[in-house]
């Protein structure tokens, strides 16, 4: 019997794609804000209209706060992975994670640790929130 090796991936259904989807979420309220990131969620009425079955994630990172593309891409990978692992325990909604502070640390290892801890705390806080 052959066991297929399924890769854990971040499916396209779990992403926000169009500017109108981002705009709808950005009109919502901030659920969590930390040193580097803020997490916003769409109003629940938008979700009821769409009747979606999965949470979706959008990422907003500007060069103003993370100058190097390597840093931006590293942080995006960490956030996507954390969301992929936690989205089944989070309320079904559209979320946008936005970088709002300048990343000054030079070491990628330090950035990786800091980003992972902060984003996991945000998603844990959101998963404990029953209504927003």
Keywords:
Ribosomal Protein S5, domain 2; four-stranded mixed sheet; globular; tRNA binding; 4 helices; 132 residues; 41% helix; 3'-tRNA processing endoribonuclease activity; 4 strands; alpha+beta; Ribosomal_Su5_D2-typ_SF; tRNA processing
User: What percent of the residues sit in helical stretches (DSSP H or I)?
Assistant: 40-55%
Radius of gyration: 15 Å
Strand order of the largest sheet: 1-2-4-3
Q: CATH topology, anyone?
A: Ribosomal Protein S5, domain 2
- Which CATH C-level class is it? Alpha Beta
Largest sheet: 4 strands, mixed
Subunit structure: Consists of a catalytic RNA component (M1 or rnpB) and a protein subunit.
GO molecular function: 3'-tRNA processing endoribonuclease activity; ribonuclease P activity; tRNA binding
Catalytic activity: Endonucleolytic cleavage of RNA, removing 5'-extranucleotides from tRNA precursor
Family: Belongs to the RnpA family.
Task: Give an account of the 3D structure.
The structure is a single chain. This protein is an alpha+beta fold. The chain has a single domain (14-128), classed as Ribosomal Protein S5, domain 2, CATH 3.30.230. 41% of the residues lie in helices and 16% in strands. The protein has a four-stranded mixed sheet with strand order 1-2-4-3, with helices on both faces. The chain starts with 18 loop residues before the first helix and ends with a helix. The model has no long low-confidence stretch (mean pLDDT 86).
